[in-house]
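Batch queue: ligand-bound targets. Current item pairs a single chain with zinc ion. No template structures supplied; prediction is de novo from sequence plus SMILES. Inputs echoed for audit trail.
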Amino acid sequence: MAEQFIVDRMLGRLAKWLRILGYDTLYWRGNDWRGLLEKGRGRIFLTRTTKLPQGGNFQRVILVRDDKPNLQLKSVIRELGLKIDEHRFFSRCIICDRQLEKIPKEEVKGRVPDFVFSTYSEFNSCPGCSRIYWKGTHQENMRKKVLELLSH
Ligand SMILES: [Zn+2]
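Prediction returned. Tokens below.
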């Protein structure tokens, strides 16, 4: 099974990138440690703080030192030796982390821009927030950006 993460409130953009890559990533916005410890059980905790809570059952804790989200992503991938699988890219909602599901084209009519509807034939939707995803230029650009980042 792929790695699962929980990230603290300082790392929202890193959380989005991990979701784009297909990793189950919780974004902990709260302030209370107890909730974090409970939600984070068995997950890899990515944090900017050195004041770590005691008694966690995290799989591992990684202190993220970089300021820029792309460098944060790169260093986390390197440190954990993650195997990036392009087939998992864009398999999760970047907003709520749910696994996306295929949705028939006719069901997205009126819910995506007309040019998108006429150009693309495969769509996914999020069972959590109903957001619709498709393999457009936006996804292609993000895919290139990630591969470029990891290539050197
Ligand atoms: Zn969603």
